[in-house]
Amino acid sequence: MKKAFIITGAQNSGNHLMTDILIVNGCYGEIGRNQNCFDYMKRGNSPIVWRGSMPKGGIGWYNLKNISDVFENYGYAVQVIVMIRDWYAVKKTQTIHFPGLIKNEEVSLSAIKRAYKKIMGDVIKYDMDYYFVSYEGLIHNKNESILAISQFIDYRLDPQLIHITNENLKHYEGLKTIQEEGVKNVLCM
Questions:
Q1: pLDDT value for 99
Q2: Maximum distance among all alpha carbons in the chain?
Q3: DSSP state letter for 43
């Protein structure tokens, strides 16, 4: 059976990275912002990847089952890959990339929580096949993480086909370690 991978997670949680890993390993999909694989699935046989951060620009808070149904109607077995990333880095990234939408870190944290409630709500309600993939796992254990993902999704992935950099580090600049009475090595702003 043909395979379709839906990549989702809060905005800036590593969705682009996971999509890129699948594309360089032979999946059909779009690296850029536009996800136009629906025309291809009508005639293609190779695995397909569709990326939709939650919420997705232009669509908003979409239903995973609706996206899955489109693929299933064309004979694809769908697997959902839920990207997770350190929340501190995600909230920092969101406030930088979406200043008009995400006004501050409190709004960002609220959006992150809502995103994962929506994603997991859909996955559980519709009994969807899913896997969690950690952005930090990909950074710190690239080869092992990609090989483990390959086993989970039953699709050969070569870790050597992609270069991964640690984009989290820049978000931790400016943090300092303090020592207070009874509290040791606490990170603060």
A1: 66
A2: 66
A3: T
The answer to which of 16-20, 38-42, 147-151 has the lowest mean pLDDT is: 38-42
Average pLDDT on 33-61 reads 74
2-188 in CATH: which number? 3.40.50.300
**Confidence class for position 181, pLDDT limits 50, 70, 90:** very low
Q: Which helix (H) or strand (E) holds 21?
A: helix 15-24
Q: Is the dihedral angle over the CA atoms 29, 78, 83, 149 positive or is it negative? A: negative
pTM > 0.85: yes or no? yes
Task: Count CA atoms within 13 Å of residue 34 on its CB side.
Answer: 3
CB-based burial of residue 186 (10 Å sphere; 0-12 exposed, 13-18 middle, 19+ buried)? exposed
59-68 burial: b if 16+ Cβ within 10 Å, else e: eeebebbebb
Provide the pairing of β-strand 130-134 with 2-10.
unpaired
* In the chain, % of residues over pLDDT 90: 54
Q: In whole angstroms, what is the distance from residue 77 CA to residue 2 CA?
A: 6
Residue identified by tokens 């360089």 is 24
Buried b (16+ CB within 10 A) or exposed e, 72-107: eeeebebbbbbbbbbbebbbbbbbeebeeebeeeee
Which sequence spans correspond to the domains of the chain? 2-188
Which is nearest to 119 in space by CA: 105, 135, 131, 134? 131
